[in-house]
Amino acid sequence: MIDLEYLAFLENILTDNRKEKFLKVLENRTKHFTIAVEDIFQMHNTSAVMRSCEIFGIQELNVIEQRYGKSIDKEIAMGAQKWVDINTFDSITNCLDTLKSKGYQIIATTPHENDCLMEDFDISKPSALFFGTERDGLSEEILQRADGFLKIPMVGFTESLNISVSAAIIIQNLTNRLRNSNIDWHLSNEEILEKRLAWAKNSIKDIKRIEERYFAENVK
């Protein structure tokens, strides 16, 4: 449960414009879709995918770090790491099992000819969209356990896009369709309160000192 008094205390430190911005952004946040990236060798691509998630309203990004243990490129992410939840996994199996247990269908993004085109994709089901490595694409385990496949329609000679570009195109298309649908895609009231608290903490300098003072004065 969220400590509403503590939330009110922190938000009282913020400007009215900041609080209004939080509420406006949260109106467009969703967990109906979640994004997963698998062992992305060039970490700036993961950072760029995170930025697309933030811009288009995807609240969670799942990062599989089975082979490459790299950190987020903060310059590329442009602060998106403060507003998007990053879930990291040390194995593909763990990521797949976790997302399936949350009720997501696993959707592999691939350029294969028989895959579902983006405009034909059924947006009604909660979906985890997987994007693979620059060199090898998605692993066989993900392809075998996928509930569906998705591709971007292309009409040129080149058969693939950079992962950050393809993710941006798919995320923008699907979230735009979602917001124009009758699907219940919004965050729950509890999730909104959780994000308000987390974002308030991310916005306040010297938050540790302020927290210590608050709980010393208010916790008996």
UniProtKB/TrEMBL annotation:
Residues holding S-adenosyl-L-methionine: T109, I152, L161
Keywords, sorted A to Z: Methyltransferase, RNA-binding, S-adenosyl-L-methionine, Transferase, tRNA processing, tRNA-binding
GO biological process, one term: tRNA guanine ribose methylation
UniProt EC number: 2.1.1.34
Gene Ontology molecular function, alphabetical: tRNA (guanine(18)-2'-O)-methyltransferase activity; tRNA binding
Matches recorded under InterPro entries: Alpha/beta_knot_MTases (IPR029028), SpoU_MeTrfase (IPR001537), TrmH (IPR033671), tRNA_m1G_MTases_N (IPR029026)
Keyword presence, Transferase: yes
Classification via Pfam families: SpoU_methylase (PF00588)
Top-level enzyme category: transferase
tRNA/rRNA methyltransferase SpoU type domain mapped to chain residues: 33-171
Catalytic activity: guanosine(18) in tRNA + S-adenosyl-L-methionine = 2'-O-methylguanosine(18) in tRNA + S-adenosyl-L-homocysteine + H(+)
Family: Belongs to the class IV-like SAM-binding methyltransferase superfamily. RNA methyltransferase TrmH family.
Entry function: Catalyzes the 2'-O methylation of guanosine at position 18 in tRNA.
Protein name: tRNA (guanosine(18)-2'-O)-methyltransferase
Species of the source: Flavobacterium psychrolimnae
